[in-house]
């Protein structure tokens, strides 16, 4: 049986908070959270030196369907690129950019994996 939607949201929110803390410990500065447009959403936007990093956070308590990494489909990647484009238009300039993912898999003692450059644009 699936968890209620509100429980899934809280798991996702906790995962995003954990991901942000992890990235900050790695030296990145979080500059925006949950940037939404009609075309898509970016969970975290960070700065890594001069590079703007658009971060997708995926949390899966089970690897039954491939885990967190498998949940980033080509359609999700396209929505991320569209949302990043909207963010850059608002920014008014285009710094070096990359797309990363924080993947959190498992219940109890989950593993966190940081995948860099998940999308080539």
- Strand order across the biggest sheet? 1-2-3-4-5
Which percent band covers the strand fraction?
Answer: 25-35%
* CATH-assigned fold name: Trna Endonuclease, Chain: A, domain 1
Helical residue percent?
A: 25-40%
Number of spatially distinct domains: 1
What series of H and E elements makes up the topology?
Answer: HEEEHHEE
Amino-to-carboxy terminus distance: 38 Å
**Coarse morphology:** globular
Largest sheet: 5 strands, mixed
Average of per-residue pLDDT values: 89
CATH class: Alpha Beta
CATH architecture: 3-Layer(aba) Sandwich
Rg computed from alpha carbons, rounded to a whole number of angstroms: 14 Å
Structural class: alpha+beta
Unreliable stretches, pLDDT < 50, 5 or more residues? none
Question: If helices are DSSP runs of H or I spanning 4 or more residues, what is the number of helices?
Answer: 3
The number of strands is 5
Walk me through the structure.
The longest helix is centred in the first third of the chain and has 21 residues, at 5-25. It is built from three helices and five strands; from the N terminus they run H-E-E-E-H-H-E-E. A hairpin with a 2-residue loop joins strand 1 (29-37) and strand 2 (40-48). It has a single domain, classed as Trna Endonuclease, Chain: A, domain 1. It is an alpha+beta fold. The mean pLDDT is 89. Strands 1-2-3-4-5 form a five-stranded mixed β-sheet. Helices cover 36% and strands 35% of the residues.
List keywords for this structure.
121 residues; alpha+beta; Trna Endonuclease, Chain: A, domain 1; 3 helices; 36% helix
């Amino acid at each position: 049986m699936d968890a209620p939607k509100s429980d899934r949201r809280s798991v996702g929110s906790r995962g995003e908070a954990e991901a942000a803390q992890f990235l900050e410990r790695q030296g990145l500065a979080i500059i925006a959270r949950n940037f939404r447009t009609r075309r898509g959403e970016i969970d975290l936007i960070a700065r890594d030196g001069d590079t703007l990093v658009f971060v997708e956070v995926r949390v899966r308590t089970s690897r039954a369907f491939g885990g967190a990494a498998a949940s980033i489909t080509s359609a999700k990647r396209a929505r991320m690129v569209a949302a990043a484009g909207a963010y850059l238009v608002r920014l008014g300039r285009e710094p070096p950019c990359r797309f990363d993912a924080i993947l959190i898999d498992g219940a109890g003692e989950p593993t966190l994996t940081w995948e860099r450059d998940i999308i080539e644009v």
